[in-house]
Automatic annotation (TrEMBL):
It is a single-pass type II membrane protein. InterPro entries: LexA/Signal_pep-like_sf, Pept_S26A_signal_pept_1, Pept_S26A_signal_pept_1_Lys-AS, Peptidase_S26. It catalyses: Cleavage of hydrophobic, N-terminal signal or leader sequences from secreted and periplasmic proteins. Belongs to the peptidase S26 family. Residues 37-265 form the Peptidase S26 domain. The keyword Secreted does not apply. The chain crosses the membrane at residues 39-60. This is Signal peptidase I. It comes from Hephaestia caeni. Its main location: membrane. The keyword Repeat does not apply. NCBIfam families: sigpep_I_bact.
Length: 299
Protein backbone atom coordinates (compact mmCIF):
# COMPACT_ATOMS: atom_id res chain seq x y z
CA UNK A 1 0.00 0.00 0.00
CA UNK A 2 2.80 2.40 0.91
CA UNK A 3 4.54 1.57 -2.37
CA UNK A 4 1.36 2.41 -4.34
CA UNK A 5 1.01 5.74 -2.54
CA UNK A 6 4.66 6.55 -3.20
CA UNK A 7 4.23 5.70 -6.90
CA UNK A 8 1.14 7.89 -7.19
CA UNK A 9 3.03 10.72 -5.46
CA UNK A 10 5.95 10.40 -7.89
CA UNK A 11 3.60 10.38 -10.87
CA UNK A 12 1.81 13.45 -9.55
CA UNK A 13 5.10 15.25 -9.08
CA UNK A 14 6.21 14.25 -12.58
CA UNK A 15 2.93 15.44 -14.05
CA UNK A 16 3.19 18.73 -12.17
CA UNK A 17 6.78 19.15 -13.38
CA UNK A 18 5.70 18.53 -16.97
CA UNK A 19 2.86 21.03 -16.64
CA UNK A 20 5.21 23.55 -15.03
CA UNK A 21 7.77 23.00 -17.79
CA UNK A 22 5.12 23.48 -20.49
CA UNK A 23 3.88 26.64 -18.75
CA UNK A 24 7.45 27.94 -18.49
CA UNK A 25 8.07 27.27 -22.18
CA UNK A 26 4.84 29.08 -23.06
CA UNK A 27 5.77 32.03 -20.88
CA UNK A 28 9.25 32.10 -22.40
CA UNK A 29 7.82 32.06 -25.94
CA UNK A 30 5.43 34.88 -25.06
CA UNK A 31 8.32 36.87 -23.59
CA UNK A 32 10.39 36.28 -26.73
CA UNK A 33 7.53 37.37 -28.99
CA UNK A 34 6.95 40.45 -26.87
CA UNK A 35 10.66 41.28 -27.02
CA UNK A 36 10.55 40.94 -30.83
CA UNK A 37 7.50 43.21 -31.05
CA UNK A 38 9.13 45.79 -28.82
CA UNK A 39 12.33 45.63 -30.86
CA UNK A 40 10.44 46.19 -34.12
CA UNK A 41 8.44 49.01 -32.53
CA UNK A 42 11.57 50.83 -31.35
CA UNK A 43 13.24 50.29 -34.73
CA UNK A 44 10.25 51.80 -36.57
CA UNK A 45 10.16 54.67 -34.08
CA UNK A 46 13.88 55.31 -34.57
CA UNK A 47 13.51 55.34 -38.38
CA UNK A 48 10.53 57.70 -38.22
CA UNK A 49 12.39 59.97 -35.82
CA UNK A 50 15.44 60.03 -38.12
CA UNK A 51 13.25 60.80 -41.14
CA UNK A 52 11.38 63.50 -39.21
CA UNK A 53 14.29 65.31 -37.58
CA UNK A 54 17.51 64.47 -39.45
CA UNK A 55 17.05 63.39 -43.07
CA UNK A 56 14.76 61.37 -45.30
CA UNK A 57 14.79 59.98 -48.84
CA UNK A 58 12.72 61.67 -51.53
CA UNK A 59 11.59 60.50 -54.97
CA UNK A 60 11.16 62.82 -57.97
CA UNK A 61 7.83 62.05 -59.67
CA UNK A 62 7.56 64.99 -62.10
CA UNK A 63 9.57 67.14 -64.51
CA UNK A 64 8.95 70.49 -62.76
CA UNK A 65 12.61 70.75 -61.69
CA UNK A 66 14.29 69.85 -64.97
CA UNK A 67 17.09 70.04 -65.95
CA UNK A 68 18.69 69.41 -62.53
CA UNK A 69 16.19 66.80 -61.32
CA UNK A 70 14.90 63.97 -63.48
CA UNK A 71 11.89 61.74 -62.93
CA UNK A 72 13.27 58.70 -61.12
CA UNK A 73 15.93 60.55 -59.13
CA UNK A 74 16.23 59.58 -55.47
CA UNK A 75 17.69 62.17 -53.17
CA UNK A 76 18.39 63.04 -49.57
CA UNK A 77 16.43 65.83 -47.88
CA UNK A 78 17.86 67.20 -44.63
CA UNK A 79 15.22 68.21 -42.10
CA UNK A 80 17.17 70.44 -39.69
CA UNK A 81 18.59 73.40 -41.74
CA UNK A 82 15.47 75.55 -41.22
CA UNK A 83 14.38 74.13 -37.88
CA UNK A 84 11.19 72.15 -37.35
CA UNK A 85 7.52 72.80 -38.00
CA UNK A 86 4.26 70.89 -38.05
CA UNK A 87 5.15 69.37 -41.47
CA UNK A 88 8.50 67.99 -40.24
CA UNK A 89 7.13 64.58 -39.13
CA UNK A 90 7.22 61.91 -41.83
CA UNK A 91 3.43 61.68 -41.93
CA UNK A 92 1.64 65.02 -42.21
CA UNK A 93 -1.01 64.37 -39.57
CA UNK A 94 -0.58 67.44 -37.34
CA UNK A 95 -2.81 70.51 -37.65
CA UNK A 96 -1.22 73.84 -38.59
CA UNK A 97 0.99 75.23 -35.82
CA UNK A 98 2.42 78.71 -36.31
CA UNK A 99 6.18 79.18 -36.10
CA UNK A 100 9.21 76.90 -36.22
CA UNK A 101 11.37 75.40 -33.50
CA UNK A 102 15.01 76.54 -33.96
CA UNK A 103 13.71 78.22 -37.12
CA UNK A 104 15.72 79.97 -39.81
CA UNK A 105 14.78 81.10 -43.31
CA UNK A 106 16.04 79.36 -46.44
CA UNK A 107 18.49 81.14 -48.72
CA UNK A 108 17.59 82.24 -52.22
CA UNK A 109 18.41 79.40 -54.58
CA UNK A 110 17.87 76.56 -52.08
CA UNK A 111 15.86 73.59 -53.34
CA UNK A 112 13.26 72.80 -50.70
CA UNK A 113 10.46 70.36 -49.95
CA UNK A 114 7.15 72.15 -49.43
CA UNK A 115 3.67 70.94 -48.49
CA UNK A 116 0.99 73.08 -50.22
CA UNK A 117 -1.43 74.52 -47.65
CA UNK A 118 -4.42 72.26 -47.08
CA UNK A 119 -2.74 69.16 -48.52
CA UNK A 120 -0.52 66.31 -47.37
CA UNK A 121 1.49 66.16 -50.59
CA UNK A 122 5.14 67.16 -50.84
CA UNK A 123 6.40 69.32 -53.72
CA UNK A 124 9.99 70.19 -54.53
CA UNK A 125 10.77 73.75 -55.68
CA UNK A 126 13.46 76.43 -55.60
CA UNK A 127 13.43 79.47 -53.30
CA UNK A 128 13.35 82.67 -55.38
CA UNK A 129 11.89 85.32 -53.09
CA UNK A 130 12.37 86.04 -49.36
CA UNK A 131 10.29 88.10 -46.91
CA UNK A 132 10.08 91.76 -47.95
CA UNK A 133 11.13 91.11 -51.56
CA UNK A 134 9.17 92.91 -54.26
CA UNK A 135 8.78 90.23 -56.91
CA UNK A 136 7.26 90.01 -60.35
CA UNK A 137 7.62 87.99 -63.54
CA UNK A 138 7.41 89.68 -66.95
CA UNK A 139 7.77 87.70 -70.15
CA UNK A 140 9.38 84.89 -68.18
CA UNK A 141 11.94 87.27 -66.62
CA UNK A 142 12.04 87.27 -62.81
CA UNK A 143 12.37 90.77 -61.35
CA UNK A 144 13.48 91.10 -57.73
CA UNK A 145 13.19 94.45 -55.96
CA UNK A 146 13.02 96.25 -59.29
CA UNK A 147 16.11 94.56 -60.74
CA UNK A 148 15.81 91.81 -63.38
CA UNK A 149 17.49 88.60 -62.28
CA UNK A 150 20.64 88.09 -64.34
CA UNK A 151 20.16 85.60 -67.18
CA UNK A 152 22.90 83.96 -69.20
CA UNK A 153 22.76 83.32 -72.95
CA UNK A 154 20.34 80.74 -74.32
CA UNK A 155 21.98 77.36 -74.86
CA UNK A 156 20.80 73.79 -75.23
CA UNK A 157 21.25 70.55 -73.35
CA UNK A 158 20.51 67.03 -74.56
CA UNK A 159 18.79 64.80 -72.01
CA UNK A 160 18.74 61.10 -72.75
CA UNK A 161 15.27 59.74 -73.47
CA UNK A 162 14.26 56.71 -71.41
CA UNK A 163 11.15 55.22 -69.80
CA UNK A 164 11.11 57.90 -67.09
CA UNK A 165 12.08 60.78 -69.39
CA UNK A 166 10.00 60.27 -72.51
CA UNK A 167 10.18 63.82 -73.93
CA UNK A 168 6.45 63.89 -74.68
CA UNK A 169 5.98 65.74 -78.02
CA UNK A 170 2.90 67.46 -76.58
CA UNK A 171 4.96 68.91 -73.74
CA UNK A 172 8.22 69.48 -75.61
CA UNK A 173 7.33 69.96 -79.29
CA UNK A 174 10.26 69.53 -81.65
CA UNK A 175 12.65 68.57 -78.83
CA UNK A 176 13.17 64.91 -79.79
CA UNK A 177 16.42 64.41 -81.68
CA UNK A 178 18.41 61.44 -82.92
CA UNK A 179 22.16 61.82 -82.50
CA UNK A 180 24.66 60.45 -85.08
CA UNK A 181 25.31 57.45 -82.82
CA UNK A 182 21.59 56.59 -82.85
CA UNK A 183 20.78 57.75 -79.31
CA UNK A 184 17.45 59.49 -78.74
CA UNK A 185 17.68 62.74 -76.76
CA UNK A 186 15.44 65.57 -75.67
CA UNK A 187 17.05 68.89 -76.69
CA UNK A 188 15.91 71.59 -74.27
CA UNK A 189 16.56 75.36 -74.16
CA UNK A 190 18.54 76.36 -71.05
CA UNK A 191 18.97 79.76 -69.42
CA UNK A 192 21.21 80.12 -66.39
CA UNK A 193 19.83 82.46 -63.74
CA UNK A 194 22.02 84.20 -61.16
CA UNK A 195 20.27 85.50 -58.06
CA UNK A 196 21.41 88.44 -55.93
CA UNK A 197 24.33 87.12 -53.92
CA UNK A 198 25.78 85.13 -56.82
CA UNK A 199 23.98 81.78 -56.57
CA UNK A 200 23.17 80.35 -60.01
CA UNK A 201 21.31 77.39 -61.52
CA UNK A 202 19.87 76.31 -64.87
CA UNK A 203 16.25 76.79 -65.92
CA UNK A 204 14.26 75.60 -68.92
CA UNK A 205 12.39 78.30 -70.83
CA UNK A 206 10.21 76.68 -73.47
CA UNK A 207 7.73 79.43 -74.23
CA UNK A 208 9.26 82.72 -73.08
CA UNK A 209 6.49 85.27 -72.64
CA UNK A 210 3.71 82.95 -73.76
CA UNK A 211 2.96 80.46 -70.97
CA UNK A 212 0.48 81.26 -68.16
CA UNK A 213 3.21 81.69 -65.53
CA UNK A 214 5.36 84.06 -67.58
CA UNK A 215 3.58 87.13 -66.19
CA UNK A 216 2.90 87.46 -62.48
CA UNK A 217 2.66 90.16 -59.84
CA UNK A 218 4.13 92.42 -58.71
CA UNK A 219 3.72 91.27 -55.11
CA UNK A 220 5.60 91.84 -51.87
CA UNK A 221 6.55 88.60 -50.12
CA UNK A 222 5.00 88.74 -46.62
CA UNK A 223 6.98 88.30 -43.41
CA UNK A 224 8.03 84.66 -42.80
CA UNK A 225 6.92 83.64 -46.31
CA UNK A 226 8.98 82.45 -49.28
CA UNK A 227 8.26 82.54 -53.01
CA UNK A 228 8.99 79.25 -54.78
CA UNK A 229 9.36 78.35 -58.45
CA UNK A 230 10.23 75.25 -60.42
CA UNK A 231 13.27 75.34 -62.72
CA UNK A 232 11.18 73.98 -65.62
CA UNK A 233 9.38 77.31 -65.72
CA UNK A 234 6.65 76.45 -68.23
CA UNK A 235 5.90 73.05 -66.71
CA UNK A 236 5.81 73.85 -62.99
CA UNK A 237 2.84 74.49 -60.67
CA UNK A 238 4.39 76.73 -58.03
CA UNK A 239 3.86 80.04 -56.20
CA UNK A 240 2.68 81.66 -59.44
CA UNK A 241 -0.44 79.49 -59.54
CA UNK A 242 -3.47 79.15 -57.22
CA UNK A 243 -4.09 76.08 -55.09
CA UNK A 244 -7.10 75.29 -57.29
CA UNK A 245 -4.65 74.72 -60.18
CA UNK A 246 -2.41 72.53 -57.96
CA UNK A 247 -0.01 75.43 -57.42
CA UNK A 248 1.18 76.84 -54.11
CA UNK A 249 -1.23 79.78 -54.00
CA UNK A 250 1.37 82.55 -53.89
CA UNK A 251 4.12 83.01 -51.31
CA UNK A 252 4.21 80.12 -48.85
CA UNK A 253 4.45 80.54 -45.04
CA UNK A 254 7.75 79.09 -43.84
CA UNK A 255 5.89 76.62 -41.63
CA UNK A 256 5.12 74.60 -44.78
CA UNK A 257 8.80 74.07 -45.66
CA UNK A 258 9.79 70.50 -44.80
CA UNK A 259 13.52 70.46 -45.53
CA UNK A 260 16.37 71.13 -47.96
CA UNK A 261 17.39 68.90 -50.86
CA UNK A 262 21.07 67.95 -50.52
CA UNK A 263 22.24 65.41 -53.11
CA UNK A 264 21.10 62.61 -55.40
CA UNK A 265 21.67 59.11 -54.05
CA UNK A 266 20.79 57.21 -57.24
CA UNK A 267 18.53 57.48 -60.27
CA UNK A 268 16.41 54.93 -62.16
CA UNK A 269 15.41 55.17 -65.82
CA UNK A 270 12.14 53.26 -65.37
CA UNK A 271 13.14 50.16 -67.33
CA UNK A 272 13.29 47.79 -64.34
CA UNK A 273 10.70 45.03 -63.96
CA UNK A 274 10.05 42.42 -61.27
CA UNK A 275 12.89 40.44 -62.82
CA UNK A 276 15.98 41.12 -60.64
CA UNK A 277 18.19 40.77 -63.73
CA UNK A 278 16.79 44.11 -65.00
CA UNK A 279 17.51 46.09 -61.84
CA UNK A 280 21.19 46.89 -62.36
CA UNK A 281 20.65 48.06 -65.93
CA UNK A 282 17.97 50.52 -64.78
CA UNK A 283 20.47 52.69 -62.90
CA UNK A 284 21.36 55.95 -64.64
CA UNK A 285 25.09 56.51 -64.66
CA UNK A 286 26.74 59.66 -63.40
CA UNK A 287 23.96 60.91 -61.11
CA UNK A 288 24.84 59.40 -57.74
CA UNK A 289 26.34 61.98 -55.40
CA UNK A 290 25.30 64.99 -57.51
CA UNK A 291 24.95 68.05 -55.24
CA UNK A 292 21.65 69.93 -55.37
CA UNK A 293 23.07 73.16 -53.97
CA UNK A 294 23.23 76.04 -56.46
CA UNK A 295 26.57 77.07 -57.90
CA UNK A 296 28.11 79.95 -55.98
CA UNK A 297 30.39 82.47 -57.62
CA UNK A 298 34.00 82.14 -56.45
CA UNK A 299 33.64 78.54 -55.30
Amino acid sequence: MAEELALESDEARAGAAIEESAAARGARRRAEWWAEIKGIFWLILAVLAFHSFVAKPFYIPSESMLPDLLVGDRLVVSKYPYGYSFVSPTFHLMPFVKGRLFGSLPERGDIVIVTPPGTRTDYIKRVIGLPGDRLEVRGGQVILNGVPVKRGPLHYVDLKIDDNSVCDPNEYPGARRTLPDGRLVCRLPIITETLPGGRSYDTIDLEAGYSPGDNYGPITVPADDVFLMGDNRDRSADSRFPLSELGLGGPVPWEYIGGRAEFITFSLDGSATWNPLTWFGAFRGGRSGTSLHPHEAGR
